[in-house]
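#struct-help
A.M.: can someone run this one for me? Single chain, 101 residues.
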Amino acid sequence: MGFLVQLAASETGVIIVATDLLLPTVALLYGGLMSILAAIDTYEWIKRRREAKAKAREEMAIAKSREEGREQGREEIVALLKEHDIELPPEVLRRLNGDAE
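D.P.: on it. Structure tokens below:
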């Protein structure tokens, strides 16, 4: 610190002391800003990932609901056919059960 005081006493020393104090301050501010921006970027990445997972879960639930609806519809058709003693050919039954292409 004594060296900085001696430099500040001369004319050119003021510029040197100011530069010596300014550079570390700028480096700290830059590092702090980069840390803040990295934290914001990480937060946004986590948020996008959570939204993508929620969307995938929702799509899976919709697909499961549709499949359950189809299965229930098939069961109702089969029950109605049995009620009226109607027999379908094996190919039609396979299609009804979803085994056909």
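A.M.: thanks! The chain has a mean pLDDT of 85.
D.P.: also worth noting: Helices lie at 2-9, 11-83, 90-96.
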